[in-house]
Amino acid sequence: MNCICRTTLCFVLMLSSTVWGQWRRQMFSGKGGRTDVPTPHSLRYFTDDPFLRDDGGDFCLTCNPSDAVNVVATSELHPVGILHGFPVIEILYRFRDKQDPGPAPVKWKSILVKTGPDRYIEIWHLQAFFTNVPLKPSWIEHVGTEPVLATMDTDGGNGGGCWEEYWWFDASGPHELDFSAVASAIAKRIPAGAHFQTGCYALHLDQQMIQSWVQAKNAECHSCGGLGTVSAKFRLRRWRAEPLSVEYVAESQ
Q: What is the extent of the structural domain holding 80?
């Protein structure tokens, strides 16, 4: 997860171009998830032809004819805010059948950070075309006194899963929030090998708290094998979440 900034934009634009090579992009599509090192592009690269940005083969662009000939694609640009001098914008993509005049749901999401005049780096690329749940806009959440760029969309399943990420910014750019120390503290307080969640429904950034159902490691279904609940309070120190307290309450038998 990522970082938050307090310098002026002019200072940010003077940073060496080697800084951008340290940034990570997370991509999710029908091919699964992966990370890579993004490079800057103009805004038109992200908006002019959404089909060229298809990572998951949603429209079988190599087919003859391509499914894209029957689809109308639109892109919407939304400013999200400025974090430590870096303007952040989001592009939401909608797709509809040419024969369907109704409004189309948001199925793709791209989060961009501006690094110079008409230069943008993509840090998040989500294609959720295979679900029925429309994607929602990202936002800036204040965690204590720290502003954090946040995105979270349910995956549409019954297991409480989602696509999510959170970034804290400084002069070097975005840093993904790191909850590993909190996860380790939780693991020490619950039965050995039990499952718990640190993100999605369990993460409450505004309260600086993680609240998760604890499930036996050999549970046979999403709702089976409940052992209890765990609550962990934390605070952010830069991009790292530091555990303050952990409370585990076992289910009564």
A: 9-176
